[in-house]
Design brief:
Bound molecules: fe (ii) ion
Structural class: mainly alpha
Number of helices: 25
Number of strands: 0
Length: 526
């Protein structure tokens, strides 16, 4: 097996910051919104003279503030159509003003529906009113608290994320607590969030105007007064360029690095967070992860590769959070523009995980889960030679698991029917035969994959090696790409030479020769 490279260290703050990028997109904000809120809240806390522990709470509450957004997505979507758009608009409102909320309902509800149905939907939304909003936020907060606990946050942070929708005047949600009953850290974060939002829309003057206007109703007046007094000096935070590094450098107190066990637990939390987005995907991410990892073990990949693949599986659909559940849960065919948005989700996964090296490695494989060997996949549409064995396993596991789950437009397939579809994908050259064989094997199927016939008696794996040699990869790089030992790569190369009749003395010109050979192989396989 390939040498097990030890994973790069991963700080808890890095993982939580990456998660905050997902909640930004899920709530209709640009990525890095929560990072700016975090930095602003910590600096504002400093101006208010908060203590060390509270400073740390502010930091994590700001990053985790919207982590419950997936819990309410389908209910908001059922009412408004696109919950991400609705969340973006709701974030600007003072929800204690009924006319603002009614205005939003009139603008958003049932936009794409015929007039009569739309009128009914608006009436139903008005009748449901604040009670429904309270229920939605209660579900959001319950999930946020639970996820924060599972990420290892202390109680003050887990409680804090349930208080960021409360208001100083007691007209917030979900518990309608007021004044100093709301934790100080949550009060600071609530204001910092709006300050970032309105600064982005209308500059420091615009932010100061809104904060002044809502001081004593939505915000703690002391916190509001402090912000207004220091707004100019705080604006560097809101306009900072490389916010990721700045936020990571600003983590107060000790900076915990995840152990192997806590890395496993936290990536699993990401899986559950993602799957909450739609009732159709319950258990999908962790199911795919475990299936891919078991298949990798069956193919003989080493411990480190298996662990990395499992964790890539946990996070593979993180980008789904950035696409409206109205699209994911649409019972009919998607329009071209809806498809375009769906095709973005592996890209979002990759970008959300791009910054810490440890997560970037997981994200690089995760982002390939919809790629296909014939180049027909997304988001890049890359060919077989660029798809490593872990990526192929993840793709096969994702397809199998998804087929055995219900979707809005179909029932769940029986395992045998799902297996048959996977085999069909192998026959059309879209999924890797070894990966599919391994996935079906660990899923309890006895089906055997018919391998494609290659000239000169070359095996599938040997053709694979040939393609990589043609790309100029070294034996070591090929071993890593294929998840096999370097020595085994050497054996494959020797077998190729034997079968196609090229002596080892021709090695110096191998690269060019194999380009031609590869073309011939592809031609004769058409
Ligand atoms: Fe996906």
């Amino acid at each position: 097996m390939s040498a097990a490279s030890s994973p790069s260290p991963l700080r808890l703050a890095e993982l939580v910051a990456a998660l905050s990028l997902a909640t930004d997109l899920g709530t209709g904000q640009p990525m890095e919104h929560a990072l700016r809120v975090c930095l602003l809240a910590v600096e504002l806390g400093d101006r208010l003279g908060i203590g060390a522990e509270e400073r740390r709470d502010v930091y994590y509450i700001a990053l985790l503030r919207a982590i419950g957004c997936v819990a309410d997505a389908h209910r908001v979507a059922a009412r408004f159509g696109d919950e991400i758009l609705a969340n973006a608009q709701l974030s600007l409102l003072d929800t204690a003003h009924p006319s603002d909320v009614v205005g939003l309902l009139l603008r958003q509800v049932g936009q794409d529906q015929p007039a009569l149905r739309r009128a009914r939907m608006i009436l139903a939304a008005l009748a449901a009113g604040l009670d429904e909003r309270n229920q939605v936020i209660a579900a959001h907060c319950e999930v946020a608290e639970r996820l924060a606990q599972r990420l290892g946050m202390r109680n003050e942070v887990a409680l804090g994320v349930t208080q960021v929708y409360e208001r100083w005047d007691g007209k917030g949600s979900p518990r309608r607590i007021r004044g100093e009953t709301i934790g100080y850290a949550a009060r600071i974060v609530t204001l910092a969030r709006d300050a970032e939002l309105f600064y982005r829309l209308s500059g420091v003057e615009g932010a100061m105007h809104v904060i002044r206007q809502r001081a004593g109703t939505l915000y703690d007046p002391t916190v509001a007064e402090c912000f207004v007094r220091h707004a100019s000096s705080l604006s560097h935070v809101l306009a900072a360029d490389d916010i990721w590094d700045t936020v990571l450098a600003a983590e107060p107190g000790t900076r915990p690095v995840l152990t192997a066990a806590s890395r496993e637990r936290c990536t699993r939390v990401i899986a559950d967070f993602v799957d909450l987005k739609s009732p159709f995907t319950a258990g999908h991410s962790s199911g795919v992860a475990l299936l891919a990892a078991a298949a990798a073990r069956r193919l003989g990949l080493g411990d480190a590769e298996v662990t990395a693949l499992r964790q890539s599986g946990y996070v593979h659909d993180l980008g789904r959070v950035g696409i409206s559940v109205a699209i994911w849960d649409k019972p009919g065919p998607l329009t071209a523009s809806e498809w375009e948005r769906v095709r973005l989700h592996p890209y979002y996964t990759e970008r959300m995980l791009a910054r810490p090296q440890a997560l970037a490695r997981l994200g690089a494989v995760a982002a390939l889960h919809h790629e296909r060997l014939d180049g027909s996949g997304y988001y890049r549409g890359i060919p077989a030679a660029l798809l490593s064995m872990p990526a192929r396993l993840l793709a096969a596991a994702d397809v199998y698991h998804a087929l055995t789950e219900p979707r809005p437009h179909r029932l769940a397939h029986a395992p045998e029917a799902a297996a048959e579809q996977l085999l069909a994908e192998v026959r059309t050259g879209r999924l890797d035969p070894d990966a599919v064989q391994a996935v079906l094997g660990v899923a309890g199927h006895r089906a055997t994959v018919a391998h494609r016939e290659w000239p000169a008696g070359l095996s599938e794996r040997e053709v694979e090696v040939l393609r990589l040699v043609a790309r100029g990869l070294s034996n070591r790089e090929m071993a890593k790409h294929l998840g096999i030992a370097e020595k085994t790569v050497g054996h494959h190369i020797q077998h190729i030479y034997n079968k196609v009749g090229i002596s080892t003395r021709a090695a110096a010109t191998l690269f060019a020769i194999q380009h031609d050979l590869l073309n011939n192989l592809n031609d004769s396989a058409e």
